[in-house]
Design goal:
This protein has 284 residues and is mostly helical. Helix content is 76%, strand content 1%. It contains 13 helices and two strands; from the N terminus they run H-H-H-H-H-H-H-E-E-H-H-H-H-H-H. The chain has a two-stranded antiparallel ribbon. A hairpin with a 2-residue loop joins strand 1 and strand 2.
């Protein structure tokens, strides 16, 4: 539990950093630099584990790395169209989507509280993000990202039971670095420069090593020791962290709509995981 709290805290802290950094560095350049750095560091640190990794670890790691790349690309791109706090809250929707994906792919039976949570989360999303009768581009991108993260969480629970968590994390980071850099190459990679170059590189290093390698390692390690449901309970803290850091670091103003919508979404996440007798299935 403490491991996942540490991971979600690091994830939450990155939204405000990215929002600021993306005013000076292109989205794909940032992701390419960040995850290429993370992949190289992971390969060096975990080389002994990688040497012993079997073919199945590389296959699982490649799948997870590709999914994580897609999620990161969409999430980071969305920051150009919506606020850090909204991005953080909507990314947290993967906690509700995770049991849905598990049911659709692996027929994991769900009880009525899940469907109640989905309705509550939808109301929260509408309150926070709807502009008239449409959802903005940024919110749409984050929702796709959340769905990909949900699939990532479900597959980690499956894969980590058959693979070394450390090696699996390292392979994910290597694949993530390669794919992210490939996405950045067509337009040429622009590196941080100017008066804030030292601060920008420090932020990238933090996001590569701590919120990249560190958080993914903590998540993979924790999911080897607890169910996806228990893990998801702890992960509900991520949107709270992101809102806190957005206010502290870049002085974002939380509007009543964001607060209300975010509260409903966090409530939906908790409802989807807590044992509520009045929503318990009679067959359980």
């Amino acid at each position: 539990m403490l491991a996942l709290l540490g991971a979600t805290g690091m994830w939450g802290s990155t939204f405000a950093m990215q929002k600021d950094l993306l005013t000076r560095v292109d989205v794909f350049d940032f992701l390419g630099i960040r995850f290429c750095m993370a992949g190289i560091v992971a390969a060096i640190i975990f080389w002994p584990r990688l040497r012993k990794a079997g073919r199945i670890v590389w296959i699982y790691g490649a799948i997870l790395g590709a999914l994580y790349t897609a999620g990161q690309e969409l999430q980071t791109l969305a920051l150009q169209f919506t606020s850090a706090s909204v991005t953080g809250f909507l990314t947290g929707m993967y906690v509700v989507l995770t049991p849905v994906v598990a049911y659709l792919l692996f027929h994991v039976r769900q009880n009525p509280k899940l469907w109640f949570a989905v309705i509550l989360a939808t109301i929260g999303l509408a309150t926070m993000s709807l502009n008239g009768l449409s959802i903005g581009l940024g919110e749409t991108l984050v929702l796709f990202s959340a769905a990909i993260y949900a699939l990532h969480v479900v597959l980690i629970e499956r894969f980590v039971k058959r693979a070394d968590p450390v090696a699996l994390t390292a392979v994910q980071m290597i694949v993530l670095g390669v794919l992210s850099m490939l996405a950045a190459l067509p337009g040429g990679v622009g590196f941080p420069h100017g008066d804030l170059i030292m601060r920008d590189w420090a932020a990238i290093a933090y996001m590569a090593i701590f919120s990249g390698i560190g958080s993914l390692l903590l998540q993979t390690w924790a999911q080897a020791r607890m169910s996806a449901t228990r893990a998801a309970i702890v992960m509900t803290s991520e949107p709270v962290w992101s809102a806190i850091f957005a206010v502290i670091l870049i002085h974002e103003v939380l509007t009543p709509r964001v607060v209300l919508g975010g509260t409903l979404i966090v409530g939906a996440m908790l409802v989807s995981q807590l044992d509520l007798p009045w929503l318990r299935s009679r067959r359980s």
